[in-house]
């Protein structure tokens, strides 16, 4: 009986493993539209900044095959698991070499608060960003991946599907 109580106490006092703190809510594509939001410094990115996007965006397609189209966004939504305190995490996007420096890993910090969801997207705003190949979005805590979502960026695959779903947003 004493061993059982000691074991139970150890379990209750042990910190929650990092992987158990963040969960994937969804992933997909957001139809092309004009990007809105404040530009904030993000030195870990090729552009040197990210855009804090508007609240309320939803995935128009729950797809992971992404054609290179102007202003098309894709990414993932995460949240904290119940009982987890606010977390400052690193969002990481890996992709084939991009831009003049051949960047393959871009990162920025994000704060996920209990009861909220965090949406992180990549939007094709510049031609040099449209790099076909495997892309991965991840949430890391202290260098440990908690959530990873793979995408495949293509030059043409899926354009018709996107145009059909996103007709109202295309000009």
UniProtKB/TrEMBL annotation:
Identify one Pfam family in the record. Answer: DUF3859
Kindly indicate where the leader peptide sits in this chain.
Answer: 1-20
Report domain DUF3859 positions.
25-153
Question: InterPro entries under this entry?
Answer: DUF3859 (IPR024331)
Organism's domain of life?
Bacteria
Q: Which key words tag this protein in UniProt?
A: Signal
Q: What is this protein called?
A: DUF3859 domain-containing protein
């Amino acid at each position: 009986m004493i061993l059982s109580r000691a074991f139970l106490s150890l379990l209750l006092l042990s910190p929650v493993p990092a992987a158990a703190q963040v969960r994937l809510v969804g992933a997909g594509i957001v139809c092309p539209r004009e990007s809105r939001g404040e530009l904030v410094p993000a030195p870990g990115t090729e552009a040197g900044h990210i855009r804090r996007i508007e609240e309320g965006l939803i995935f128009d397609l729950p797809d992971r095959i992404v054609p290179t189209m102007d202003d098309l966004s894709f990414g993932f939504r995460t949240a904290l698991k119940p009982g987890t305190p606010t977390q400052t995490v690193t969002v990481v996007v890996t992709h084939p070499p991009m831009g003049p420096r051949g960047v393959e890993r871009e990162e920025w910090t994000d704060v996920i608060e209990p009861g909220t969801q965090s949406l992180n997207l990549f939007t094709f705003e510049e031609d040099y960003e449209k790099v076909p190949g495997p892309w991965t979005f991840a949430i890391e805590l202290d260098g440990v991946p908690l959530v990873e979502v793979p995408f495949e960026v293509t030059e043409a695959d899926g354009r018709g599907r996107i145009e059909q779903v996103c007709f109202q947003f295309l000009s």
